[in-house]
Amino acid sequence: MYVNKIMAYTNTPFVKVLTGVRRCGKSTILKMIIEKLKTEWGIPENRIVSRRYDSMEYEDITAKEMFAELKTKLYPNGKTYLFLDEVQEINGWERVVNSLASDYDVDLYVTGSNSRMMSSEISTYLTGRYIAFRIYTLSFAEYLTFKKSYESIADPKTELAKYVRLGGFPATQLQRYSQDEIYTIVRDIYNSTIFSDIVKRNQIRKVDQLERVVKYAFNNVGNTFSAKSISDYLKSENRKLDNETVYGYLEKLEKAYLLHRCSRYDLQGKEILKTQEKFYLADTSLRYSVLGYNSDTVASSLENIVYLELCRRGYLVYIGKTNDGEIDFVAAKQNEKLYVQVTQSIVAEKTEKREYNRLLEIPDNYPKYVLRTDEFAAGNYEGIKTMHIADFLLSSEY
């Protein structure tokens, strides 16, 4: 999916920028593109240059040295295909990429896993010259494909429960690992992101404060909260932290791609609201590897998974605010739109009414879904489609 999307821009003047949380598969996607260029496009080896800047080899390299070294590798009689992995490690890499793109016959692919990849510098140096691709951890369908290669898989509904718990970091699904082994791998990804991309880069001194904010955010996936609610919670634990600092931490977690911010959209006033946002994780396994597994959190993890799937499919996703409540997700893409309610199970008729009535209040004809994991009679209820979450994640109809 990603390779096809990215290669639609091969041999165009745009720099292809791949971003996403550490270890989500960006480097592998670059390798797949290189392979395709060689085997399907017939590009010879000497026209492809690949560099990985988180290697010790480039530890103290300057932007100037990076530029000089790459210049010597350019193919003299035609286009050079340049693949620059983890470029954020080089201070001033944006100027290097801009110079190469402006002055030489190159096709450029760049990856990175933190805020420097989407900062104002990129916009300044590469205005209108780059296309960003967000890479996510494995979708449910990709997770099943990975798993199939080393063991037989159960029916999708059973597998969904495992996917919620174990998440979709590609490295954890290359062979059969125990839950503890998976959480050890994910905790390592989490620690290196927190310490390299956030603490070190931003010179944060009060690491315990940052970790408390992280744990609060991880614990409150799918709940609307504000910097003030975190600040009040920390105050109750006798730890003083002002709203501004909390916002700063949340922003840094977002820029390291650990958290996704989901804004609320007022369906009546047709505007994005700036308060009471929700945050979702880059992968559900992050929560469990850091805080331990807790079955009470499955409902919000399912919501997290549906949110990521909609993002993966190119939708802009919001929480829908109605007159007297909320729609879990309003997802928009060009002139398409869909509304989604996610619920683990519906036990009372009152709950059922609430889930459906909120969708029925919306006076348009875009598709509306109630997604659940319990037993239910499939079908439509006044135009609202009820589906099992596993079927929705594997469906190609939206």
The radius of gyration over CA amounts to 22 Å
Number of strands: 13
Strand composition percent = 15-25%
Provide the succession of SSEs: HEHEHEHEHEHHHHHHEEHHEEEHEEEH
* C-alpha geometry: globular
Q: In what order do the strands lie side by side in the largest sheet?
A: 7-6-8-9-10-11-13-12
Overall domain count = 2
* Main pleated sheet: 8 strands, mixed
Helix content: 40-55%
Distance between the amino and carboxyl termini: 16 Å
How many separate helices?
15
Structural class comes to alpha/beta
Low-confidence stretches: none
In quaternary terms, these chains amount to single chain
- What average pLDDT do the residues reach? 90
What does it look like?
With 398 residues, the chain is of the alpha/beta class. The protein has two domains: 2-134, P-loop containing nucleotide triphosphate hydrolases (Rossmann fold, 3-Layer(aba) Sandwich), CATH 3.40.50.300; 141-394, no CATH class. The chain has helices at residues 2-7, 26-39, 63-73, 93-103, 120-125, 140-148, 156-166, 179-202, 207-219, 227-236, 243-255, 284-291, 298-312, 349-360, 389-394; strands at 15-19, 48-52, 80-85, 106-112, 130-134, 259-266, 271-281, 316-321, 326-333, 336-342, 368-372, 379-381, 384-388. The longest helix is centred in the middle third of the chain and has 24 residues, at 179-202. The chain starts with a helix and ends with a helix. The relative contact order is 0.09.
